[in-house]
Design a protein that fits this description.
2 copies of one chain form a homodimer.
Chain A lengths: L3 E5 L5 H9 L4 E7 L4 H17 L4 E3 L3 H9 L3 E7 L11 H7 L2 E5 L22 H13 L2 E3 L5 H10 L5 E2 L16 H9 L3 E4 L14 H15 L4 E3 L9 H9 L31 H10 L4 H20 L5
Parallel strand pairs in A: 1-2, 2-4, 3-4, 4-5, 5-6, 7-8, 8-9
Helix pairs in contact in A: 8-10, 10-11
Chain lengths: 326, 326
């Protein structure tokens, strides 16, 4: 069974990789950069190369969907690289082809703040894709890189959906009609996304959940069912946003990077600045089979569950990774 | 017919690429770094990606010998990346795997001066491979990257030959018994090189030639014949060191990099600081067929000529590019 998680940023360890195998994960899209420069991102890739060598029985680096299928066949979890911010490409569009060659398959055009390319969801105003943003969308289309707007603002996201010749993704967020949060997405965005063949990965990060850490599996799955009615089950997947075993210093880096001397609390607050506790039904990769059971309990059929748990992402990657001519 | 040039650093242009096709070049090992840092080397790769896109009818990037053979079949010249100095890997052994993924297939362990890895041929003392040098040799063996000692000093070169589990190369130099020059190689080195399966690429850079720019084709080919007697024709190839259409500022960068505030004249002199004129028989890539005729004139047979003009390099790359387990 193909199971794909379209976003994790764990404190990587053999324990986590063993749990991926226990949870039956075929592929995981891992974040390798939040605010890192090109060189810093390459350092992350170097650390991954050491992990691939040290844990070659558990994980393997995937450049293609053929690599994902080969991982499945050999009982390993395929790792796909992604960046949550365009910082790894700096101000140099030619770096995209270099990063693609090194395995970058997903890139967000902005992360909370304005970037060189697009506006983030915490800015006051969103003028939409920038001049460079439009060029980068075309280059990502050519190379076969997923355009991810998870942390971007509404107009920029709608611009990206319209400009991109390939369907785009929101790898980790939920609908804001279920839980209104800066990071969750409007019905307008999710309709435009799904109508163009794009994908939404449902997040299990407590700040994106109704009732936060107290959210129940049933409540989560009812939201998925409602989303399936609105947008079609074929456009839905999981993007857990699992940040397992990370110290709170990591969420400080995610939110504040090097852009402020203050602390930005993002979805948290001064009273609650760290990672929130995970909901009881989703602590780590071993809880993926439970999600599938939860989807069955709210009425999804086998084929829909297979789609949401992995094959929808795989079909989408099949389409996007091939790239398209300029 | 397979024709391979194991070193060029031209001022790349459509003119040069068309001349490669006219000269029947199957593959050219091009220098992408002299003293460049990692990021600067990546900028050179970015420039090459634009060239591959703009001149896709003439050239193609080769990562493997299968790519070289495919280029031959499709009437293009395969481009292989190399660095004349370990500067692109900085002080970070993990960068080698990254550079390898990006296509770096050849790296010199030192360029004229002491590096972190080995001693260059212009230093007064040569203590041999450094601690890090031995680690890098093993990692290059594992990855399948050619260890090139063209600009290295004698003991470091002998160390590399001994330490490496794959045969090494001197991509561009001549025997010093023909023309004594700091950059040409001793009989001791060339014997050790060839006895371990290594390769020597004959240079056509005037400072490496007997009579310099006045060297004749016959004289050059008689030297090749003598080398074939001493070392075996199977270990010989061409590494022209062609620096076509380059302004003299480029030879200043090669020699002085950022290591001196003075000007180092290297093989030149204050009176003769620039690129010397090429010998009459070898101006550019169109002169490769003439080399083959010159080899025939001094008595080489067809199969030896095919070897020296290209298949010896191809067999060597077949062996080395596969890498070997740690």
């Amino acid at each position: 069974m193909i199971r794909i998680d379209a976003l994790q940023y764990a404190n990587w360890s053999e324990t986590v990789f063993r749990q991926m195998r226990e949870g039956g994960l075929t592929a995981v899209h891992v974040t390798i950069a939040y605010h890192e420069t090109f060189r810093e991102t390459v350092l992350q890739m170097e650390a991954w190369n050491r992990r691939f060598a040290a844990h070659s029985n558990l994980i393997t680096h995937a450049y293609t969907t053929a690599d994902i299928r080969a991982a499945e066949a050999s009982g390993k979890t395929a790792i796909l690289y992604g960046a949550q911010n365009p910082s790894p490409m700096e101000d140099d569009i030619d770096l995209l082809e270099i990063l693609h060659r090194l395995g970058l398959r997903v890139m967000q055009l902005s992360y909370n703040n304005q970037s060189l390319l697009a506006t983030g969801c915490y800015e006051d105003y969103d003028p939409g894709l920038t001049r460079m943003g439009r060029e980068v969308v075309a280059e990502m289309n050519r190379l076969g890189m997923v355009i991810d707007m998870s942390h971007s603002a509404e107009r920029s996201t709608l611009d990206a959906i319209e400009q991109s010749r390939q369907p785009i993704a929101i790898t980790h967020a939920n609908p804001d009609w279920w839980h209104p949060a800066r990071r969750n997405k409007s019905d307008t965005v999710l309709k435009a996304l799904s109508e163009t063949g794009g994908m939404l990965g449902f997040s299990l990060y407590p700040h994106h959940l109704k009732d936060g850490s107290e959210c129940t599996l049933e409540n989560f799955c009812r939201m998925v069912a409602e989303a399936a009615e609105r947008y079609g089950a074929a456009h839905l997947g999981i993007g857990s946003d699992l940040c397992q075993d990370q110290p709170d210093s990591v969420v400080v880096w995610m939110r504040s990077g090097r852009w402020t001397k203050d602390v930005d609390y993002g979805e948290g607050s001064a009273a609650n600045p760290g990672f929130p506790p995970q909901p009881a039904f989703f602590h780590d990769n071993r809880d993926f089979p439970g999600l599938a059971r939860g989807l069955a309990a709210v009425g999804f059929d086998k084929s829909e569950i297979a789609g949401i748990m992995g094959t929808n992402w795989l079909s989408y990657f099949d389409r996007v990774f091939d790239g398209c001519d300029g």
